[in-house]
Structures are given as C-alpha cells and as structure tokens.
Amino acid sequence: MIFGRVKPLDAILETAKKKSLHRSLGAFQLTMLGIGAIIGTGIFVLTAEAAQKAGPGMMLSFIIAACVCGVAAFCYAEMAAMVPVSGSAYTYSYAVMGELVAWMVGWALILEYAVAASAVSVGWSGYVVGLIEHLTGSHLPASVLVFTKGPFNGGIINLPAAFIALLIMSLLIRGTKESATASAILVVIKITALSLFIFLAIPAMKMENFHPFAPLGFSGISAAAASIFFAYVGFDAVSTAAEETKDPQRNMPIGLVGSLAICTLFYMLVSAGVIGGVGAQPVFDAAHQHALPAGSSEMAAACSTLKDSHVVCSNEALAWSLRKIGWNKVGNLIALAAGFALPSVILMMIFGQTRIFFVMSRDGLLPGFFAKVHPRFKTPYIVTVMTGLAVATFSAFFPVGILADISNAGTLFAFAMVAIAVLVLRHTDPKRHRPFKTPCVYLIAPLAALGCLYLFVSLPLMTLKMFFGWTVVGLVVYFLYGYRHSNIARNISDDEEA
Fold it and tell me: Do 43 and 334 touch, CB atoms closer than 8 A?
C-alpha cells in the first residue's frame, strides 16, 4: 500500500545524524534568513498588483494572508522543532501520511521555491531598470528594453533577471554560512530602506486616498490576498535549514515565528504609506465597469499612458510613491536598496529548493547524484546548479505576477499538509517529545488548513489548472521512478543508504 509507506520519525532522525549537513546556523541567523526570504518582491513589487485587484482594501488582504501564515507558522514550528532535518513539509508528510503524500508535497515545494526565486529575480530586474532610467533622466531605447522584459511583457528576454539568478547560484555553491552572512547584510539594507519609506510616507498620508476602500468588493480583497500570500511564503524556507541549525529545538521556533511577526508589522506600515501617500485605486476599462486584469495585455496597454499617474502601473511601487510625494532622491535610494536587497530572497528560495532535492534524493525518490555534496564547500552543488539554471530560465521569459501565483499554489498545498500532519501526529504519536507545541492545536491547525484552501481557490483559474497539470506530471515521475527506487520500496535501511 502506497499510503502505508510511512518512514518512522526515529528513522528520519537517525538518517540525518549519519548523512547530515554541517550545523552552523543560530537563532539570529535563522531570523535574518527568514526576514531575508519574506521581505522582498511581495512588498517591493506585488504591492502594485494587489492594488489593482483590491484598491486600498489590499491592507485587509495583507492581514488575511498574515493570519493564514501565522497559524501555519505555529504548525511549522512544532514540526520543525520535533523533526529538525532538511526537507520541510516533505519530510513531515513522509513521517505522518506516507510516501505518496510526501512526494506530492515535495513536488509542490519544487514549484514553490524555484518559481518563487524566478519571480523575485523578475522583480529585481524591474527595480534596477527603473533606477537606471531615473538616474540617467531618460528612458532606455526600445532596442535595449526588449532585453529587460520577457515575451509576456512585450520584450524578448529578461537578461538582468537571469543574471541575478545565476549570480546567487554561484554564491550558494560556496556554502551555507557564507550565504547566511551575506543575507544578513542585505537584510539590514532592506529593513533600513523600508523604515525610511515608512518615516517619509506616513506623514504624507491623506485619508481621502483610502476611499473607496474596497472598489471591487470582498472578492477583490480575496484575490489580492491570494497574490499577496507570496509576500509571506519565505518563512517556511527557514524550516528547510533545520539540519544545518545549532540547537534546532530552540532556534527553529524563534526563527519561524520571529521573522513572520517582524515582517507583518513592516508590511502594514508600508502598505498604509503607499495608499495614503499616492492613492491605490484600480485601473478600469473605458466604460469604467470592470477593473482590468492584472498582468494582462489590456493592463499593459492602459499603463503605457498612465505610468506616471497610477501606482498600479509601476514596476517599482515604493520608489515611485516616494518620488510622487516629493522625495525624488530618496526614491532612487529605495530603488537602489531594493536592487541590493532583493537578491537575499532569491538566495533563500534557491537554498530551500536545493535542500528539498537533497533530502528526496537521500530517500531514494530521486536519483542519488542529487545528494552529492561538494568535497570542499560541503554543499549539494549539483542540485544548486540545476536549480539555478531553471530559475534563470523561468525569470528570463515569464512576468512576476504569473510566477508569484503559480508559486503560491504549491505553497498553499504544502502548508495545508503540514497543518494536517500536526493533527494526525498528535493522535498517532501523542507521547513523543515536542520541544514546541502549537497552542490550541485543535483550533489553530484546522484554521491553517482551511485558510490555505480559501486562498488556494481565490487564485486565478489558469493558475489552478497549471498547478494540477504540474501535479499530474509529478505523479507520472513518481510511478515511473520514485515508487520503485525509494529506500522503503527496496527495503534499504539507513545504514545501507548510498
């Protein structure tokens, strides 16, 4: 029975001891990695897309997404502290609900991390190109711009996005600790930039800019929440570093919950500054009956004439907002800070992706070469290179909005499975030591699962179709390879693993 292929928690922990990665991360580094993964394209870039879907109501969208992530964070913290090994939701599912569910979760996480890294790469490209244009005082010629945008946005290929993805890949090959140190520096830059934005934008707020608060109703707020969820998903990447964390029973919950709380506070203040400072009403069609779909060709055409008057048309919403309220030079500094800071998000996403590949390979569900560790840098370099190349390819040809929504679909599925796993394990193994327990678990865990389902069905229909298509491909791969080659299927013990 497929659902009977459950790898005991004790066996998972024993495997990690014998084939583990080097433990070098503490609570501070984990929190910095979490903030580095969370604060990024969601607030710097997707703010404009959220405004197009919900108007000022995007503030409520941020709250809804934060609440779903908050309850999920407690479930993640319990599992991560109890099972401090690489693999995140994949590993937890393997231990609780069996191999098939674990494979589906791992396959969804591949979609989450790789596509998310691509989305952030595209966001970084938008800020850098915009900064260059404002510093030079003129728009780049069309012959150059076509190489800064993918085909969906009227270009040929987004070379800046592909470049930053490959650069981060090279950094990750050199080592986890070095990457975490670099990420911490970038986080400081990012927090400073957002703090400066809040300090300058909040005093310029005008209450009339908040009306109408929900021009597209609650459905628009729900749609924006589903997209904005991308702004929070990075926190679960912290759990994939469990096997490289010192004292994970203490440090993992601190890193998960702490980074989420800090980021939520920043998000609320920044979104209030954008709405109150420059307004954030959607762009409607000519008859003013329907809001134009975000990321559509119709929206792109409208923005070609409205770029300087609507924040929803900007690829650099925060920098644009400061320039509109009179802080031109500071706006350029915000764009520069984004150019330096957004790579930390790409770093954490690729980091999480490679660790998922690493542990799935270690379990035999993927070929063994995925688990090979570099003899000098002690990192899974083969999967890092493969992931980096895939991220560069996606970011070169797809727009940020589509990539973010696709990533959200995989993330929401994985989060729901973790919440269910916590409940199941409370029944099947109630006496196991839990260094961190989810408070009010029979309320929090169901809320996490239902919240993820609510946001999942709020995603665009095309995104859902692509997710289910990806799932079908994953099942084909599993039954052609993983089903027969997994360690459990071949009765290979931890001692015998290659």
Answer: no
Question: Can you read off the two tokens belonging to residue 379?
Answer: 């990192």
Which phi-psi region, left, alpha or beta, contains residue 327 (left: φ > 0; alpha: ψ -120 to 50)? beta
Q: Out of 3.40.50.300, 3.40.190.10, 1.20.1740.10, 3.40.50.11740, select the CATH number for domain 2-18+26-283+290-496.
A: 1.20.1740.10
Question: What are residue 148's DSSP bridge partners?
Answer: 158
pTM to 2 decimal places:
0.81
Handedness of CA 278, 280, 282, 288 (dihedral sign): negative
Q: Domain segments of the chain: what residues?
A: 2-18+26-283+290-496
State which amino acid sits at residue 86: S
Q: How many angstroms separate the CA atoms of 304 and 238, rounded? A: 39
pLDDT tens string 71-121: 888 888 788 777 766 666 787 788 788 888 888 988 888 888 888 889 889
pLDDT, tens digit (0-9, with 9 covering 90-100), for 420-447: 989 988 988 888 878 778 888 999 999 9
**Which H helix or E strand runs over 335?**
helix 328-362
pLDDT-derived band of residue 396, with 50, 70 and 90 as boundaries? very high
Looking up tokens 């930053």 gives: 164
